[in-house]
Design brief:
mainly alpha, 139 residues, single chain, 5 helices, two-stranded antiparallel sheet
């Protein structure tokens, strides 16, 4: 399964200086503790690139796992807290806390994750639930 390609409509660099901001930004005044500034920015750029790629893939995996949950023959629908019976909702959270040993609500209640799960995964990955992002991370 491959990600659906969409036309790029944004810039590679986030840089929107607002005219009303009066604080001057002079790059010659910037430095990093214990390393050259160019080395620091290179590390930071590389870190964030990998961080966001890993974050997205982990969100895909989490959503896929959540959608596989079944309670008394009732398959979960996303979002869990709005579109399922109270039994499915409570059972999933008991599974997470008592058996898995984690509470994922800090992730699943965030606006970032909610938008990805509700609006993007099914568009980016047609047949999302049939694939397996653990077996095919290039999914």
């Amino acid at each position: 399964m491959k990600i659906q390609q969409h036309k790029k409509t944004y810039e590679d660099v986030f840089s929107k200086d607002r005219p009303k901001i009066t604080t001057p930004f002079r790059i010659q005044n910037l430095s990093a503790s214990g390393m050259e500034f160019n080395e620091y920015t290179s590390f930071f750029h590389s870190f964030l690139k990998n961080f966001y790629a890993d974050l997205f893939l982990n969100c895909v995996k989490l959503s896929w796992l959540r959608r596989k949950f079944i309670f008394y023959g009732h398959k979960v629908t996303i979002p869990i807290h709005k579109r399922n019976s109270i039994g499915v909702h409570i059972s999933f959270h008991k599974l997470m806390r008592r058996i898995i040993g984690n509470d994922i609500q800090i992730i699943t209640k965030s606006p970032f994750y909610t938008k990805l799960e509700m609006y993007y995964f099914d568009v980016f990955f047609p047949g999302f639930e049939e694939g397996n992002p653990f077996e095919n991370p290039d999914y």
